[in-house]
Amino acid sequence: MLRIGQDLVDAMVEHARADHPDEACGVIAGPEGSDTPQRFIAMVNAERSPTFYRFDSGEQLKVWREMDRQDEEPIVIYHSHTATEAYPSRTDISYASEPNAHYVLVSTREPDTAEVRSYRIVDGVVTEEPIEIRS
Length: 135
Prior knowledge:
By secondary structure, the chain is of the alpha/beta class. The protein has 3 helices and 8 strands; from the N terminus they run βαββαβαββββ.
C-alpha cells in the first residue's frame, strides 16, 4: 500500500496538468528504508512527448546523487498518461528499475478529473496497490 500526503498527490496532478499534452515525470524521495514519500522532485521529460517519458540522464544523475547525500531513496516514481488510463505501458514496465519504488501514474485524459493509481513493478510483473491519501 502507498501511504502518501494529499499535498504530494496534488503536486503530481498539478505537474501532470502543467505539462499536458506531454507526459510529466518525477520522483518523490524519502528516507532510506522508510517507505515514506516526503520530498517532491518534478523532473523534465527529455522526450517532450505525449506518449512516452524519459528522465534526462544528467538531471537523473544529479537527483539520485542528491538523494544519496541526504540518505534518501526514490519512494515514488511518477509519470502521466495524457490519453490513456493510468496503467503502465509495456515501455513503462521495461524501464521500471527501482524494485522498492511505488510507480504512480496520473491520467490527464479527462480535463476535469485526474485518475491516480499506484503499482509495484518487479521483474516485469505489475501489481496494483491501494493508495491511502493522508491530509
